[in-house]
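Q: What would this chain look like folded?
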Amino acid sequence: MEENKKFIAVTWDFTVVSENALEHAIRISRTIDQDIHLLHVIKKGASVSEKEEKRKKLEVTCEETYKRFNIKPLIVFWKDPYLQILRNTLQIIKPV
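A: My prediction, written as structure tokens:
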């Protein structure tokens, strides 16, 4: 992957709203040729089994997305606190 390549970040919480956001991101990604990253936040203190369960569910989501749209998003996990997530995301997504 190219360094500093732009991408479309989609927050993912396994809801219909997330699915709609992903479908919009797919349409946009086809127009502007950008990768899609699914961003899922894991609660601070989550157990190893809970983290693994979420990862497996996300992998299934990515496989289903690939079968349906021929696009496979990258999975990105972030831990709480949300302010640190925002700081890190803003460092990744720098204004042009």
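The chain has a mean pLDDT of 82.
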